[in-house]
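Q&A log
Question type: sequence-to-structure
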Amino acid sequence: MKDNIREEEVKRVADALNDSPFYKFIRMSVVQIGEGVSEVHLELRPEYKNIWGSVHGGVAATLLDTSCGSALYSSLNENEGAMTIDLRVNFLAPVREGTLIGRGRFVHRTRTLAWSQAEAFDQAGNLLARAEAIHKIIKREWAK
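Response status: OK
Response body:
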């Protein structure tokens, strides 16, 4: 029974994220939240490009931040949330067009902090960026 409750809670969180105005505006969606993993897709738009014709690094960082945070969800209790307090991104190759795919992985947590990692790929599977994040564990007010 507990697994069913957890699955319902995970779906509720993914639905809330995907329904948020920001995610809709930038065309980003959480497609998987699992046991210590996540997958997030971001549909790239021409407006995201910088003056050199590649996607601005902040767009990729947003995807990586979401991938990191979503991956640590399985480590949280039902009344906990997390907020990123440190995000370190390494940009490995320019992002140009298509759908950017982020895959996150939970690493470790203590009572007050959690660590996660994520990688961003293009649709051909080329690695474009990597990130490591530290999150502060917070009380989640809307959990029931």
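Response note: The chain has one domain: 2-139.
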